[in-house]
Specification:
There is one protein chain. By secondary structure, the chain is an all-alpha fold. It folds into 2 domains: 61 residues, Orthogonal Bundle (434 Repressor (Amino-terminal Domain)), CATH 1.10.260; 41 residues. The protein contains 7 helices and no strands. InterPro entries: Cro/C1-type_HTH, Lambda_DNA-bd_dom_sf, TransReg_Diox_bact_type. This is Helix-turn-helix domain-containing protein. Keywords: DNA-binding. GO terms for molecular function: DNA binding; DNA-binding transcription factor activity.
């Protein structure tokens, strides 16, 4: 948490705010703010949100996961399940079997997953 504390201090100092003034603006005590900046205590999620909103920075920036205040864009692309039976069971759970469109929806979703799996095979060889 030392790195986070350094980042919190740098944000405060970037606006030339005293600990007392920032604490007042964030709705916390000056002693709590001091402990956060020195890595002696960890802010609550709500306090982290207040910092992010007040300074208009991302949580990634506050947690020193990136150097850009706006944060980092992640491209998460989960792998399609390789086990066809497992995928079919999952899709069946997603729709109401009593629905008149059940089979059509189920087949459409399974077809999309099959197409995605084919695309991944082409990319990975």
């Amino acid at each position: 948490m030392k790195e986070v504390g350094k980042r919190l201090r740098a944000l405060r100092e970037s606006l030339s705010l005293s600990q007392a003034k920032l604490a007042e603006l964030l709705g916390i005590t000056q002693s709590s703010l001091n402990r956060y900046e020195n890595g002696q205590s960890t802010p609550t999620v709500e306090v982290f949100r207040r910092y992010a909103d007040f300074f208009d920075v991302s949580m990634d920036y506050i947690f020193a996961r990136c150097e850009k205040p706006q944060g980092k864009l992640y491209h998460y692309q989960p792998k399609v399940w390789k086990n066809g039976a497992e995928m079919e069971q999952f899709v069946e759970m997603c729709f109401d079997p009593k629905s008149p469109y059940y089979n059509r929806m189920k087949e459409s979703v399974l077809q999309m997953f099959a197409e995605k799996a084919d695309e991944e095979k082409e990319v990975t060889g």
